[in-house]
Write a structure and sequence with these properties.
mainly alpha
Length: 88
């Protein structure tokens, strides 16, 4: 699918689905940083509970970020399909 400048300025093509991919990778990076900060940060040193909480944040956050981004992409795919139906 080729997107021209005209398509972007007149909203004939959706740019947001490409931005969502970038947002997903950014969210994934932040989730990993947050998980490691939970595991190794704080005053108590590394404890088993903090380590498990960090692993839980990494796994749960990665799954949640993926689901959220996929739902956003589904909304835009629905928009594309409705637009195609309207053009017919």
């Amino acid at each position: 699918m080729n997107i021209s400048i005209r398509d972007i300025f007149y909203f004939d093509a959706m740019l947001t689905t490409k931005i969502i991919t970038l947002v997903y990778w950014l969210a994934l990076f932040l989730v990993v940083i947050s998980g490691f900060a939970t595991m190794f940060g704080g005053y108590g040193g590394v404890t088993f509970g903090k380590f498990l909480a960090g692993i839980g944040i990494i796994i749960g956050g990665a799954v949640a970020a993926r689901i959220w981004c996929e739902l956003l992409i589904v909304l835009f795919k629905i928009h594309d399909n409705i637009r195609k139906m309207a053009e017919r």
